[in-house]
User: What shape does this take?
Amino acid sequence: MTNALDVVVLDVNETLSDLAPLRDRFTDTGAPGHLLGTWFAGTLRDGFALAAAGRSRTFKDVGAAGLRGLLTGLDLDRPVEDAVTHVLGGLPELDVHPDVPAGVRALVEGGLRVVTLTNGSPSQSQALLERAGVAELVEQRLTVDDAGRWKPHADAYVYAAQTLGVPRERCAMVAVHPWDLMGAATVGMTTGWIDRTGSPWPDVFDRPHVAGPDLPAVAQALLDR
Amino acid sequence: MTNALDVVVLDVNETLSDLAPLRDRFTDTGAPGHLLGTWFAGTLRDGFALAAAGRSRTFKDVGAAGLRGLLTGLDLDRPVEDAVTHVLGGLPELDVHPDVPAGVRALVEGGLRVVTLTNGSPSQSQALLERAGVAELVEQRLTVDDAGRWKPHADAYVYAAQTLGVPRERCAMVAVHPWDLMGAATVGMTTGWIDRTGSPWPDVFDRPHVAGPDLPAVAQALLDR
Assistant: This one.
């Protein structure tokens, strides 16, 4: 076995969790369901803006502020602040994509340590993994709040490797988001892309080392390297 | 007059230009018009991701890559690449918001130098200002491509002030985007927020020094300081 990896670092939002049920949280309030995509992109935009400018706020705070802006002026069935609370209240109730448990098990059975690293909260990572029945297979739930910078700033990945006591070169980052893998690659990590929707890789980022349509496929590709 | 400002730096996309006509470019191809908001937020997200990770690509490249991803798998009336070209082809044809010419004139008549600083291309800034009849009032069209980092990375604003030969403290950044003003403030610039839609200021960013519903109002507030 020539595999030089010790640890696989899993992203959480959208990589493990399926955000689709949040769509109903928007429509519950009278807002259009398609705002989910705009809101999530805008939350990352503002969090990355803070990271680029050398600052940091929690995902919850950034997400709430962006949501307030998007929902203001819409014809809702409740006050904006109540609608914000309702939409964000869906985050802790999300479930993993169906392919996740088998993928996590494959990584662990392949001899790799598995952790999560999220721009969100570690308590949500924990609840998500518990509901999926794989919490005991995931050694640690790390958050960028402890790094002081959101991914894809280098500090977030360096923090993870240091906390794990592993050289970055022996870590693989696995995510659905190309920007996350771009960031992990800048610090020397191996990268694995889960592309569940068959979307093309955005050519403004360096290509990932391995890719596949789900976590088991990416796990196998990492184990085969 | 106690005003210590020499230069007003205007953002371009959405601050001067009205992106609304791009909605029709999406629907022309068979894509839903609401993708405009998701696409623009996603383009900034990916550009800021590069900035946070210490990298940079042009707005056009980042915007095209994101658009390709969003349009793939939709029921379009043409190939994805043609749809990407059609949507991006709307960018150089945008016009300014109606309040912009009077606002630029007010700044110049108030004795301030006026320049633009965009995450996009300076040729589009130039064409936009020419169509609005105020190109001769705007001393320079700066782009972050020459800074090596997109706004809101500090390098972008420092580059602008250095190019203008003015201390940052004597520059004011004016934009509709809170993240842009957050970035300008980190390097000591005065900030002016145009809030044309009555949206609340996102409380994850420090508040701007002045604000108003259009460029003339923000111009007056800057001149009154």
